[in-house]
Design a protein that fits this description.
Elements (H helix, E strand, L loop, with lengths): L25 H22 L14 E2 L8 E9 L13 E9 L9 E8 L2 H4 L5 E8 L16 E7 L1 E5 L13 H8 L6 H6 L11 E5 L2 E8 L4 E2 L24 E3 L10 E2 L6 E12 H20 L6 H11 L2 H31 L8 H20 L4 H21 E6 L6 E6 L1 H4 L2 H31 L5 H16 L5 H10 L7 H20 L4 H7 L1 H15 L14 H23 L1
Parallel strand pairs: 9-13
Antiparallel strand pairs: 1-10, 2-3, 2-5, 4-13, 5-6, 7-8, 8-12, 9-11, 14-15
Helix pairs in contact: 1-5, 1-7, 7-14, 8-9, 8-12, 11-12, 11-13, 13-16
Amino acid sequence: MAPPANGGGGEVQEQAAQPQQQQRGIGQMLTGVIRIAVFWYFASKFFSPKKPMSDPSVPNFQISNLFSKGEPLDMWFYLSEQQNFSDFGNEGALIWHETNIPYAVWGPESTRSLSLKYHLSEAVKNNGSLYAHVYFARSGYSPDPNDPEYQPLAAFGRTYSIVTYLPKSKADKKKSLLRNSEDSKEDVTNPEFPQAVQEAQDDLKEDGPPEWISYWKPNVTINLVDDFTRYTANAIPPIVAPYINIESTTGNYYPTVFFNEFWLLRDKLIAINDTVTEVPLHLEVSPISMTKWQLFLQMDQSFQVHRSYGSMLDGESDELKRVFLEGNPYLLGVTMIVSVMHSLFDFLAFKNDIQFWNKNKSMEGLSAKSVVVNFFCQFIVFLYLLDNDTSWMILASSGVGCCIEFWKIGKAMHIEIDRSGRIPMLRFRDRESYAGNKTKEYDDLAMKYLSYVLFFLAVCFAIYSLMYDRHKSWYSWILSSLTSCVYMFGFVMMCPQLFINYKLKSVAHLPWRQMTYKFLNTIIDDLFAFVIKMPMLHRLSVFRDDLIFLIYIYQRWVYPVDKKRVNEFGFAAEDVDQAASSSDTPALKEDEKKTN
């Protein structure tokens, strides 16, 4: 199908609010494409029938296409407000007529197109229906059953609704929290008041059932499927069966007419109302291969499976299609490969992070407060996703991350349950390996001055957001402000560890495998920052993590390996050497006795 033609004021679906500072690159989109492809593969294996279902009531014989390859066809395209069409003599209903279209032949003569403007009737403006009736016939024959030269085996057709009905996008419930309801009502009557704020007043209305309105499809692509398969009558593949048009007398099938909507995105649809009098209409007829046709059907089926499972929100399938529709194919291929590497490094970093904290026996040289702060940051992001329209897969992933961060607190500190009061409370106590040396002193010192900076930045951003942004409630404002601070200033939480490394003059206690994988992911993010179009300030923000990791690498190079310092498993190199020498001493003495 050709890309949708530009025209009309399509209504775009509202997406869930995201922080402006969050990086939403094409790499994350392609990672979703890969995950959906894998999920679709397994879903098709488990939920699709392995073999066509046989119907004992249907005779078991072979059926074939009534038409031959390359046979010339004539086409008639009618528009009518009636679903059943019989007014073939109405010249006003005939919108498009083509002759000598070669069937299932790939060439310029087999593709025809037409662009026009259509004037809507009053019935269509008032939620009326409009149908496209497309008929094909062998050249020289008529599709009209009342015509004396009509031959039932020479003509076929299909009906398609060119007007669809979808629920109207819900009004934005966000509002300015500093303005009360009375001021908002007065501002609505002011024509100079910004339109965006006027729309926010819909939050004052009670929520009701969704309103369904009609939308115009500006593109109609008619594909003749290149299918000459000999099917068994009682074993037609389930994905093909709904589109097979069987001729009753011979049992054979007509050529399949497929109205291709795969590339027709929601934001290209035009909302129909009383003010819309003329709409654009782009028509195209062309052949399509059997493989490509089945691929479109399978993809649409997989999107429906995802939506039914809650793993995909409405509109996300359009975003995935938009990547393939508007992206550079070479850049798309490179991005897919890099996205796979990004997912692999994420998994390896996660795996090594779990292994490190599971085997770690000493907190010497590690920042325990950074672990606690990381948990609260992850928990804030989870609450923010819960407050917005987010798929359960993203919520589950964030929830598991919160549980892991809390588990890491248990490895970094002692967690006790205090039952002295009416309500049991959790109490956290530092481990001896952390409090018994300089690590706690340096960690407290670094976090003290860092908290001043973070608190000042968080308060300033929250005030700015309260004054200039719109929010659903005070709770949403708090979550949005905290989440934005996490995304913008989260990298600053790695600074206490840099300070501890500087004071201890050692980096032997760090999980270097995990940090290596994260650094590789940062390099991939840098690649996307150069490739993808984005504001300069946002592009510079991508390199902030690079600075932290480069300082880590510099510290590893500057500070030599200290054999007296314990590693993440609670052992020191000198202890191992002493144990080995002590175990070798008796054997050496025995050898000396034997030689003597």
